[in-house]
């Protein structure tokens, strides 16, 4: 297996013998080796290039050079695309007007990513779904577009009243220098697997002010903001996340070959296996596939924490939290009782990016626009679009069920537990059904799977949306605002009447 994919690996061949021994593709071996190297460099970076010992300039230079080295080792000359994409977007930020800069930057950055994805898939190797150079470009795309919108919010003439609290917090008050910009996009902690973070949080970490900003959020009530707090250690968080990585990797390597997802469309399996067992098999296959993502994202989070990045205040018991840029919550994923809860805890930073650049700013049908943007960002495989189009229907149906049926089960704890069990099972089946095309990638196998299920969940979602009424979130928010305004008018009119009576008296 390893020797067959060596030709498609564009990076270093130094670890080819290890690839052959463990029977894994060379590009994946390079990726894991670089992440482990980045973990060691993160510890060194925190101890020897601490903000108290060196300047932000040195930290930016070292972080950027190490990141570019890792990219070169993993992807060879394809890593030049990272600099080209970043350079084009920075030029747009500098020369375009602030009024439209964020829109132009969004189009240029996402367009360049899509062009690279098209060439990789349809020119080089359609089926090469492994560690490829467009993966880091997806994270860089998130960072560049987020930064463009945050610069627009901070430097344009928009009134503060037009910004949400999160937009005010993330707004950038000055144009980043080229070094700061490259460090943010290409630092060694996140160039290979992210996660995405806000520019302000990253700069606070590089300048050594992130701890002071978060000390005020101590939830144990003992912090008065006057005494200087000792800097919390990420050691416990890093060790815990590395243990999670080890368990996830072991689980994935043990099960993914035993429970392949494409077995669910095998004609003999479909014709001879009862439908309920097909459902169980699909759930187990997806359960065996998810630890791969748990491993990659948790390791990336541990690398950032080891460098001192990711501190997010304190828990109620006073213990430090290191989840500022965490990308998932595993238990909340596996025990999610709604489609929304699953998505809220899966790839968290990407969901935040979609919310900030699309959902909060799109004037027409933000839910559909957000799913469409997510599909375009993921790539050009048709399976991605089938998954996210299905996801739109699933989200609307789940929202309708929650608004119309859930209140009847809140009358007692026993009823709520029954509801939670039913919705957990339904959510897991719905997620598995939705993401099968995401794994199979091509149109033919995806439609073959849906046909074997008679498109049952598609039809069920359509029926639920047509039968159960539900207001959109924006309409609900507007209704609340209108009610509040009506209440204020009533109060003001009452006050006016009282004042008139006082004057007449």
From TrEMBL:
Spans annotated as Disordered: 478-505
Task: Tell me which domain of life the UniProt entry assigns to the organism this sequence originates from.
Answer: Eukaryota
Compositionally skewed regions (Basic and acidic residues) per UniProt: 478-493
Signal sequence residues = none
Where is the protein localized? Endoplasmic reticulum membrane
Q: Which GO terms describe its biological process?
A: lipid modification
> Which Pfam families does the record associate with it?
MBOAT
Show the stretches that span the lipid bilayer.
Answer: 29-49, 61-84, 104-123, 383-401, 421-443, 449-470
Q: Which GO terms describe its cellular component?
A: endoplasmic reticulum membrane
Membrane topology according to the record: Multi-pass membrane protein
Any GO MF annotation of the entry: acyltransferase activity
Q: What is this protein called?
A: Membrane bound O-acyltransferase domain containing 2a
